[in-house]
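tool_call predict_complex ligand=zinc ion
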Amino acid sequence: MNSLQIIKPDDWHLHLRDGEILKAVLPESERHFARALIMPNLIPPVTTVKQASKYRESIIKALTEKDSFQPLMTLYLTEDTKPSELKLGVQTGIITAVKLYPAGATTNSQSGVKDYKKIYPILETMTDLGLPLCVHGEVNNDSIDIFDRELVFIETVLDPIRQRFPKLKIIIEHITTKSAVDYVNEGGKNLGATITTHHLVINRNNILAGGIRPHYYCLPVAKREPDRLALLETATSGKENFFLGTDSAPHFDTQKESACGCAGCFTATNSIPILTQIFEDNSALENLENFVSKNGAIFYGLKQNKSYITLKKGNSNNLPQNIICDKKNITVFDPGFELNWEVQTTF
Ligand code: NCD
Ligand code: ZN
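tool_result ok
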C-alpha cells in the first residue's frame, strides 16, 4: 500500500502547557490532529470550570488556523472538588472528562488525591452525569518499586473504585504493562485505555542501557520488552477500548538533561508518521484508523471527525527535530528508525 486515507486523528491525552510554550507546541498538534483531550496539570492546576473555559479560550486564540483543532477540556480532580462544579462543567459543555492524579505521582500532581475515600461522592456524581474519569494509574509510594507502580495501582486503587462504581466510565491513561492490557481486556465496555506513541517504540533498555537517555524518560516509565509487545499487539489489533493518547509532554532540554531530569516525551510532531510506520511493520495498516481516529470518539460518545488525512509513502524525516521557545529547545521524540510515511491533510 502506498497511500491511505483515514479520518483525521484525535489525541486523547495531550499536555499543551500555557503561555509561550503553548504557542510554540500547539502547531505540532494542529498539524495532524482534529481534537485533543487537554491535560489540566498547569501551575496552578485547572480545577474549576471557569479556569478550564479560560484555558480553552487561550488555546483557541493560539491556533495558527481558525477552527483547525478542537481542545476538549479536563478538570483536575482534588479532594475538594465540588460535585456542583462537575455538573456545571457538563451543563455548559466545557468539560469532557475529569483527571485523577495520585498526589505526587508525576509532573504537577501535588494537588492530586491522597485519600480515595474522599472522592467517592464526586465519583458518584460523575457516574450520574456520565462524565468519564481519566486516571494516571500509578501509586506514589516509596516502598513500591517504580516498575510495579501501575499494577499496584490497578490492584489496590482502581479495582476497588470499579467494584463500587461499575457504571463509571474510566480510562487508564498511558498503560505500560501487559497486566494493564489484560485488565482492560477483561474490564467490559466502561473501561478503556490510552496508549502512547513512545510506549509502542521503547522499552526500559532504551532509557538505561548504554547510557542514560533523558528524552526517553517519562511517567509511567517504559517497562520490559514483553510489556511493549503486549501494547503493540493490542494497539495494532484495533480493539475498541484502546486508543491513542500521545501524552506528548513538552519540557525544555535544560530540565530534561539534568541531574534530576523531569518526565515526559514530546511526540506531538511525529506521532502519526511513527504510528503509521509501526502499523505497517506489523501488517496492521487496516487497523490504524480504529486506533488513532475512531475508538476514542466511540468510547467518549462523541461524533467522528469530518475531516480526513492522507498518509502517503514518502519521507517524514523532514519534520522538526526540536521546537524553539524563548530561545530554549524542546527535543522531539526520536523513534530511532526512519519514517517512510508523510501526512497530507485533506478536507
Ligand atoms: C507528564 C507531564 O510532563 O506533564 N509527564 C509524563 O512523563 N508523562 C505528566 C504525566 O502525564 O504523567
Ligand atoms: Zn500526561
